[in-house]
Amino acid sequence: MLSLPQRIVVEITQMPILKNPSLICGFPGSGFVGKLAIDHMIEQLKAVSFANMFSSSFPPQVLIQPNGTTDLMKNTFYYYKGETSDLVLLGGDAQPVTPESEYEMAEEITKICDKLGIKTIYTLAAYITGTFTKLPKVYGTSTLEQIVKEFHNYGVSVMNSGSITGMNGLIIGVGKRKGITGICLLGETSGYVVDAKASKIVLEALVKMLGLQLDLTEISKKAQDTENLVKTIEEQMGHRTTGESLHMPQHDKKLGYIS
């Protein structure tokens, strides 16, 4: 069988000049936890796009835009200029579907980090439990032990086992080898629904760490929609939970894998 080369194409419209920037990534994954979070940040901060990233390892489809046109699947870089430091936000439509292209994309992202002077990467992801939880937690890991020791200041529980799959994990691992500090914040989610509640608690932890002012009104409304959906699912399953969670038997909670 003929093996075609995989390609990553980065189209930069204008490279911004930033002061002390950090990169925040949220890719589509389980519960869309990271994507909902980063999309909310982009909208609320009125971040400006400056580059698109395309991959031949994205799903082979085009997306219909609000104006009725079509476009290839892509991930997009945005920037936001703050009072004391700036942010680069990376979100988009998909993650690559092969390990080779995931590593290649992570390398390309760190190249852009180098051009912009980015020394810290935050990724926003999902901590999958297979359980509907009334009081979900935020878990965290970092490439620096000192940062891990400070998680308790922000209400973040330390991950001390398991793995982080996909781009939300790979980027901080590749960045570590380039001298970039990596932090991953993970919202606890069942993995069965689009979980804005998990996105909201991740954002709450992130803004504390960054000292950032961010309006969470819209994501809070979506989080309430998630709660209503879970309640409906519980009722349809005939469960009236008296504790904190509803367990779904077909998922192994000990996996603790992340996306």
TrEMBL record:
Comp. bias regions, Basic and acidic residues: 249-259
Domain of life: Archaea
UniProt region (Disordered), positions on chain: 238-259
Protein name: Putative 3-isopropylmalate dehydratase
InterPro entries documented for this protein: MJ1210-like, Proteasome_assmbl_chaperone_2, PSMG2_sf
